[in-house]
């Protein structure tokens, strides 16, 4: 093992082992969850909405269901079934690894305790907004493929269990992690409970009406702007922050938000309903307080309109929703729908 100890400290770290076995290609991409960065413990996090707490509890249940003995037994498989190789490739992708074939999966399975630790840390990275968004974009594509092929993720998990029972726990954890990410980032799915539009306060109905006036073609036109639209980027990044997400520049906005405008509108729609029900994540609005204030003072709606009418509408929506949220904090009975939605 001496050849593994690159820094000659008498110990072989996981990073040294993986680099020696797999080469530099194994190194983590996106935001590493195997670094010295330390996220605040969950006990120190601000109180979480009920939906987030439930998703977090389910994620922990699934992680507890992944046994080290099962992981060790999987390592002995030299040639994995295509479905199982895809599953572990997605697992490694979520953890930020580049090498995704079964060879890299087996190398990770050499250290099952280390692998479980990295899986456990990922939830903290999602909670604080540091999880690599590209990795989860890939995960959504693969999950949609599972649903198309099997009808539901539950049937897919059952299929994995039929291939090898030892991989079922990993499949359940991967599915739960994607769901947890969606809940944290306010990405609605078919199970999202709807609120009757007639129950929405008039002020929010007006904001929603402006949002609904936007069509996919409008977003497509905005994404084709040749030069980086300064005001449009500022507006979109501000709205993403209000939704609890983070952005990394115009390229990411073009490849994610503007490519899937319906998801953005659904997330904004859900946030408006959470505000109406007094269930909105207050920390998100606190994070954008200064930004929205500058929008109002600097006439951002008018500035954004010089680049894109869509950006102007979204900016107006953000300013209006923020104002309503602040007013509801000052007067908790203002148009509250309660928490039944």
Annotation keywords:
mainly alpha, disordered C terminus, 341 residues, elongated, 18 helices
Structure description:
The protein has 18 helices and no strands. The protein is mostly helical and 341 residues long. Helix 2 runs antiparallel to helix 9, helix 12 packs parallel to helix 18 and helix 16 packs across helix 18. The longest helix has 22 residues.
Layout of helices and strands:
Blueprint: H1 14-22, H2 50-64, H3 68-75, H4 82-94, H5 102-109, H6 112-127, H7 133-150, H8 153-163, H9 168-184, H10 202-212, H11 216-223, H12 230-242, H13 250-255, H14 261-276, H15 282-287, H16 289-298, H17 300-305, H18 309-330
Helix pairs in contact: 2-6, 2-9, 3-5, 8-9, 10-14, 10-18, 12-18, 16-18
Could you provide a short overview of the structure?
With 341 residues, the protein is an all-alpha fold. Helix content is 62%, strand content 0%. It is built from 18 helices and no strands.
Please give the largest β-sheet.
none
Terminal CA distance: 59 Å
Query: What Rg is obtained from the alpha carbons, in whole angstroms?
Result: 22 Å
Q: What's the assembly state of these chains?
A: single chain
Mean pLDDT: 78
Share of helix, binned: 55-70%
Secondary-structure-derived class: mainly alpha
Q: What string gives the helices and strands in order?
A: HHHHHHHHHHHHHHHHHH
The general outline is elongated
Proportion of residues in extended strands? under 5%
* pLDDT < 50 stretches: 27-45, 188-198, 335-341
Count helical runs: 18
Number of strands: 0
